[in-house]
Write a structure and sequence with these properties.
The protein is mainly α. It is built from nine helices and three strands, in the order βααββααααααα. α2 (21-41) runs antiparallel to α8 and α5 runs antiparallel to α7 (160-173). This is Non-specific serine/threonine protein kinase.
């Protein structure tokens, strides 16, 4: 297995094979499903607490697998702070309050990392942190949205709409008010709709036909 961080924002020297958009979309969906599973197993009690690209492992088929679950409670707060700096939600920074919605925020930062090719950590030292959500918002606000995306993705044709859809999902995850963030099941559904829009349209059409057939005619 390899780390997502190494595949997206790691060394970009000669000999490196860049991840194409389909691979990044598949990894995002796999990671989202993994976090959603963690959340669903314990009701509101289970929190990952350490979501970042170096904790996403890529299997042979480039499926994203979430690692390091359950280790955060074993560490002191200072250690956790440095391990997840750049991925932490505002309420975790200000009140040290981690919830499933703070996991959603961290996952949103992860999506931004996948989309932009930029890391919220510079890895020269854990104090060297980039506020990736704020940078993305500033670029989008100036209507330079295309400047957000990783240049390695710009070589692929006909993916602009999907990139923007994923960006919108990521930004909904990193909104500052935690109650306004989607839960992970909703995030999974939204990413699935990017992957299989024709399936969603077909299911919607089938549901409408089913409802029409149940209407009593006078």
């Amino acid at each position: 297995m390899i780390l997502l961080r190494n595949a997206t924002t790691g060394n970009r020297g000669a000999g490196r094979t860049p991840l194409d958009w389909d691979s990044r979309l598949n990894i995002s969906l796999g990671a989202a499903r993994g976090i959603a599973h963690v959340h669903s197993e314990g009701g509101a009690k289970f929190i990952h607490g350490n979501i970042k690209s170096s904790n996403i492992l890529l299997r042979g088929g480039l499926d994203g697998c979430v690692s390091d679950f359950g280790l955060s409670p074993l560490m002191n707060h200072t250690h956790i702070k440095h391990r997840v700096a750049g991925y932490r939600a505002p309420e975790v920074i200000e009140m040290r309050k981690a919830t499933q919605k703070s996991d959603v925020y961290s996952f949103g930062v992860l999506l931004l990392e996948i989309l932009t090719g930029k890391s919220p950590l510079q890895y020269t030292g854990y104090d060297d942190v980039v506020d990736l959500p704020r940078w993305v918002r500033s670029v989008v606000r100036e209507e330079w949205t295309a400047e957000v995306f990783d240049m390695e993705l710009m070589r692929y044709q006909n993916i602009e709409e999907e990139l923007v859809q994923m960006l919108q999902i990521a930004l909904s995850c990193v909104t500052k008010v935690h109650d306004n963030r989607p839960n992970m099941d909703e995030v999974v559904r939204m990413i699935e709709e990017i992957r299989h829009p024709e399936l969603e349209n077909r299911l919607s059409s089938e549901d409408n036909r089913s409802k029409d057939s149940n209407v009593n005619t006078p």
